[in-house]
Amino acid sequence: MKARILRFLCKTAVCALLLVIVTKPAEASIPTTNDIVWIGIAIGVIGAGIGIGIYFAVHHGHSLNGCAVSGPNGIQLQSKGDGRTYALVGDVAAIKPGERVRLSGKKAKNASVPPQFFVEKLNGSYGSCEVQSAAR
C-alpha cells in the first residue's frame, strides 16, 4: 500500500514539475517610446488609407449621367443629376441619341447656353431612355 501511495506522489510531483517548467507566468511589458511612435504612425497610415479609399470610392471625378438627345447644334445630354441639358463637344462619335450614357470629361467654364461638356470618354451605355425635349 505504501508503494502505491509513493508511486502516486512521484507521478503527481513529476506532473507538477512539468507544468511549472512548461508554463511561464505572463510578464507585463511596458511599451517603450519607440513602440508608441510606431503605433501612432500605423494608426495614421491606416486612417489615411481608409480616407483615400473612401474618397475614390465616392468621388466619380468629372462625369455626367443622362440621356443623349439630338439638339439644334448637335448631340446634347439631359443630365440625370442636376437636370440640366449640356451641349456635348469632343469625343461624341460613339454617343447615339436616345441612349442613357455615362460620360467622363469637363464642364466648360464659359457661360454658354446650353452649357457645354467636353467629352473625354464614354464610360457606359445603359440602353435606351425616354427622350424629352432638348430645349431646356
What does the model show?
The radius of gyration is 36 Å and the shape is rod-shaped. By secondary structure, it is of the alpha+beta class. It contains two helices and five strands, in the order H-H-E-E-E-E-E. A five-stranded mixed beta barrel has the order 1-2-3-5-4. The mean pLDDT is 82.
Give a short summary of the structure.
The protein has 136 residues and is α+β, with helices and mostly antiparallel strands. The protein contains two helices and five strands; from the N terminus they run H-H-E-E-E-E-E.
Largest sheet: 5 strands, mixed, barrel
Beta-strand content? 25-35%
H/E element sequence? HHEEEEE
Physical arrangement of strands within the biggest beta sheet = 1-2-3-5-4
What is the overall silhouette?
rod-shaped
Amino-to-carboxy terminus distance: 108 Å
Q: Work out the helicity level.
A: 25-40%
Assembly state of the chains shown: single chain
Please compute the radius of gyration using only Cα atoms. 36 Å
Task: Throw out a few tags for this protein.
5 strands; single chain; 136 residues; five-stranded mixed barrel; 35% helix; alpha+beta
Element layout with pairings:
Blueprint: H1 2-22, H2 33-58, E1 63-71, E2 74-79, E3 85-90, E4 99-107, E5 116-128
Parallel strand pairs: 3-5
Antiparallel strand pairs: 1-2, 1-4, 2-3, 4-5
